[in-house]
Design brief:
Blueprint lengths: L6 E3 L2 E2 L9 H13 L11 E2 L13 E4 L12 H13 L4 E6 L3 H10 L8 E6 L5 H6 L8 H15 L9 E6 L8 H9 L7 E6 L6 H4 L7 H12 L4 E5 L6 H4 L3
Parallel strand pairs: 1-4, 4-5, 5-6, 6-7, 7-8, 8-9
Antiparallel strand pairs: 2-3
Helix pairs in contact: 6-8
The structure holds iron/sulfur cluster.
The site of iron/sulfur cluster (SF4) has 11 residues, from helix 1.
Length: 257
């Protein structure tokens, strides 16, 4: 979890990105499905939980929407997303994190329904595990858009809408977690710095896999030195706020790879 987040809210659960390292899917289709069968699909397909739309939020909270799934994945109907965003808009003194691996959906929705569906209390975010798309595709890490291309799509969204959505998108969020073998940490840093002119703050989280799932599937991680270089460089950059999560040597580094 992210230390800035004070609450999670799952009015929609489920996801079709099939990330190889997904803990949410495993948890949802086993323990959570047994405990709350009305909230989770046994195959982790998206599900709307109408009664969660009636929850109340306190001013000042930072609410992560749908941490057990991806609200913006392709199988979630537009109508569900619009309902969720409407609740977020109504709670204008609460902040809502919209974190996805499908940032192209932000653009599609705004083009289709207009910028009115968005509001300044929303923090759009993207998860990118790497900058190495060909490795990511070769290792079949997930069915989502490959990470470097995903980051480019997110940048296009921010560039296009930062001046249109109520004047400004105050903050955006980039989660580099779990880190997967980089082609070049400098390239990833350069891409992140391109967000700076468009927002007040870029919040970046960085961390290694906590569950040993990348190792289990033979997916390599960047070296600790590379990750530390990336963190140090970002920390020295204006308007970038870096949060470091799990840091350790890469499993493949220990093997001398
Ligand atoms: S995007 Fe998140 S919820 Fe969806 S499969 Fe990947 S890790 Fe799991």
């Amino acid at each position: 979890m992210f230390n800035l987040v004070t609450r999670t809210w799952n009015p929609v659960t489920g996801c079709v990105h099939f990330c190889i390292y997904c803990w949410a899917r495993r948890l949802a289709i086993t323990r959570l499905y047994k405990l709350f069968p009305e909230y989770y699909d046994p195959e982790f397909k998206p599900r709307l939980i109408e009664k969660k739309l009636r929850e109340r939020f306190r001013p000042g909270e930072l609410v992560f929407i749908t941490d057990v799934g991806d609200l913006f994945c392709s199988e979630v109907p537009d109508e569900w997303i619009l309902k969720v965003l409407e609740v977020a808009r109504r709670n204008e003194r609460t902040l809502f994190l919209l974190l996805t691996k499908n940032p192209g959906r932000f653009i599609q929705l705004l083009e289709k329904y207009g910028v009115e569906i968005y509001s300044r209390n929303m923090i759009p975010g993207v998860t990118v595990e790497s900058d190495y798309d060909t490795y990511y595709i070769r290792m079949k890490v997930s069915r989502a858009e490959p990470p470097y291309s995903r980051l480019e799509t997110f940048l296009n969204f921010i560039k296009k809408y930062s001046n249109e959505i109520n004047g400004f998108i105050p903050k955006c969020w980039i989660s580099i977690e779990p880190v997967i073998k980089f082609r070049s940490w400098k390239r990833l840093v350069r891409q992140i710095l391109r967000f700076i002119p468009y927002v007040n703050k870029v919040i970046v989280y960085v961390g290694y896999d906590n569950y040993g799932l990348l190792k289990k599937h033979g997916i390599e991680e960047p070296t600790l030195e590379e990750v530390q270089e990336l963190i140090n460089y970002l920390k020295d950059s204006p308007r970038v706020e870096v949060h470091v999560k799990t840091l350790r040597r890469a499993w493949n580094e220990k093997l001398g790879r």
